[in-house]
Amino acid sequence: MQDALATPIPPSGVKRRRDCEAPNVKNKYGTRIANLPARTKSHHAAENCGKIEVHGPKFFLPPIKLPMRPDFVRTLIGLVALVSLEGCAFEAVKPWQRGELARENAQLVADPLENAADEHIYFSKEAANGGQGVAGGGCGCN
Amino acid sequence: MQLERAPIRRALTLATATLLAGPVAGEETGVDLQLSQLYYAEQNRVSVNTSQILLGKTLREGDAVKLGFIYDAMTGASPNGRKVPLANQSQTVPITTASGFSFSAQSGKSSGSSQTWLTEFKDNRTAGTLDWDHSFTRNISTNLGVNISQEDDYRSRGGSAVANIDLDEKRTTISLGASASQDTVDPKGGIPNGLGLVACATSAAAFEPAWIDCNATRTRYKPGDKVSTTVFLGTTQVWNRQTLAQLNFTHSNLDGYLTDPYKQLSVMSDSFDGEVAVVYEKRPDQRSTNSVLLKSVHTLGDQAVNASYRYYWDDWGIRAHTADIHARFDFGARWFLQPHLRYSRQGAADFFRPELSASATKPAYASADHRLGSQGTTTYGIKAGVAFSKVAKLALRIERMTQDYRGTTLPDLDVWIVQVTFRNEF
């Protein structure tokens, strides 16, 4: 509990989580591995280990009124998460290593006329449409 | 009407022939020609024959143009929003669409009086697109496009601009785009009054809601105009040697006459057998739509799988989920087979009403168009292709599409789609 000493004494009502005592964990060579968070209760317990929980008087942030619909916010969060994932998960493929992705069958839109026909069919039969770009061309579809 | 259309077809053929003949002679870079013929047939409803031509040409390093033509011939009957009568229910309202309202919406002509919920129509659509791709540097390119579409009672004019920026040795591409279009719907005689009267049942006078005046003059107005603007933000990412992924966000605003002038609603009463009256539908004059599309291509040896998911939402209260997957199996360099599966489900718009109640007050907006209702669409099919040379390719696809509707009595839809595409370079 070294870091507990470094932490200022919490005010009343603020407790440090008790479920993160480092157990006597040993590796296969019998050496004790220090400062390992316990996984006794759950992954959450381990993740929250050392975090301060606030009890008693609660502090509220003033309610923030977003001018956006909750759906929009959720989507935005999802998008940000996906884009940030892109940044760290892909392989640094060199241009000359993209032979497979350059094949005709590996194109995002392999057949433009088939794609155009489908876009038009679903545009005239469903409420939802688009998503693939800004190509237009309305119809008074029956 | 067919006679009226013929000059356009001739003009198209002529223009195509001219274009084909022009750049081919003496040019180093060839013309990429794509042809398609599509037959779309709904069981007992609409059938459409679509011809498409797409011509592409690289003018010089970094500049390419694409010219496209589309000709649609549509015929058949489509649901008009009126309630599909139960087997034991009589339809007392005669089809009295104001005479001359639209020659492309002649109600109940050959579908018989028992199918008042269908409207017969016949229409042709001619559309053209012109695109110009230009590369400013190795990593920045743009696409500018214009498109027009013309039907007997509808026309659309639009333009679009997209910029693509390649980053990180072209592993990432950011696309930014915007487009705008101006559409006019012009049924013969003008657009009807929203929630205005189509017809009243003569024997149902006692049940008519107060807001319907069966003696009202059926006023028609000038054509309806609408303006659509779209912004688009997309990113394409090479994940590894086998995987490419795309994430797009699209936002559109539509403003103007967004109602379908041919769609109607039945006004029903518990105490009356059949329709008390029939009125035209009415939609809000603004709509804001959004969609997020996640698409990926993954290669597995010589094969490739293309999968996508789209979430759509708009301020009319519609939410839709669409998933699409097709896998292409290549057999050598010549043949391929490509099974396809698509599923889409949407929720209803806030103002979707399968019928109106005679005892209720007049709604602000109401539509019984199934396309704004809760529905599911399933498509499955297969495409087979053969390559005659490196550039000459022929493909045939056969698909079956079914649509099921919730919250209405509309029978399910069953469609066959057959498309033949041919591509060659000259």
Order of helices and strands of chain A: HEHEHH
How many independent structural domains of chain B? 1
User: Gap between N and C termini of chain B, in Å?
Assistant: 36 Å
The helix/strand order of chain B is: HEEEEEEEEEEEEEEEEEEEEEEE
Summarize the main sheet of chain A.
Answer: 2 strands, antiparallel
The Cα radius of gyration of chain A reads 27 Å
Provide an overview of this structure.
The complex is a heterodimer of chains A (142) and B (426). Chain A is mainly α. Chain A has two domains: 1-57, no CATH class; 70-125, no CATH class. Helices cover 31% and strands 4% of the residues of chain A. Chain A contains four helices and two strands, in the order αβαβαα. Chain A has a two-stranded antiparallel ribbon with strand order 1-2. Chain A is flat. The termini of chain A are far apart. By secondary structure, chain B is mainly beta. Chain B has a single domain, classed as Porin (Beta Barrel). Helices cover 5% and strands 58% of the residues of chain B. Chain B is built from one helix and 23 strands. Chain B has one helix spanning 2-24; strands spanning 31-42, 47-60, 63-79, 106-107, 118-135, 140-151, 154-167, 172-185, 191-192, 197-200, 220-221, 224-238, 243-256, 264-268, 275-280, 286-300, 303-314, 319-331, 335-346, 356-357, 374-387, 393-406, 413-425. In chain B, strands 1-2-3-5-6-7-8-12-13-16-17-18-19-21-22-23 form a 16-stranded antiparallel β-barrel. In chain B, strands 10-15-14-20 form a four-stranded mixed sheet, with no helix packed on it. In chain B, a hairpin with a 2-residue loop joins strand 6 and strand 7. The radius of gyration of chain B is 24 Å and the shape is elongated. Mean pLDDT of chain B is 86; it is low at 1-7, 9-27 and 94-113. Chains A and B meet through helix 3 and helix 4 of A and strand 1, strand 2, strand 3, strand 5 and strand 6 of B.
